């Protein structure tokens, strides 16, 4: 993966400001370039679901670089350029600063939601010929456990393992929902 060159922090802060989870052009930036429009900046990428924008980098002969809006929000507000960001709620369009946190690739993958192409609506659960299988990846190794009679039982077992091994980066099927009933007992 190519290392991303962050834009100069001070010059970016002269062009953009953060408000309510979005970046906007400053009045000076709008005056300097009439092609810029007021309102939140960024274009939606249908392929991956993120917002992006282009920036002509002054240190590289004004060559165009494409940046994720979430990275620019974090850079403008916090002054740090993390190699990767995680959207805590899993919503790629929610670029509120409180929803962004630095993460490693592994941590970011732990917070994924169930794939729409999956044969089961639960994270880490797959239908098999005779029941359901839970799958979880721990320190780069994939572990599976077959034999669950219901998808819900496999999903709950996977949630317990995710909580144990992933902590704050866990993506849950049930454990984050209040009033979970297990065996007639409300948790």
From TrEMBL:
Residue intervals of the HNH nuclease domain: 77-110
SUPFAM superfamilies: DNA-binding domain (SSF54171), His-Me finger endonucleases (SSF54060)
InterPro entries: AP2/ERF_dom_sf, DNA-bd_dom_sf, His-Me_finger_sf, HNH_nuc
A single GO molecular function term of this UniProt record: DNA-binding transcription factor activity
A Pfam family it matches: HNH_3
Protein name: HNH nuclease domain-containing protein
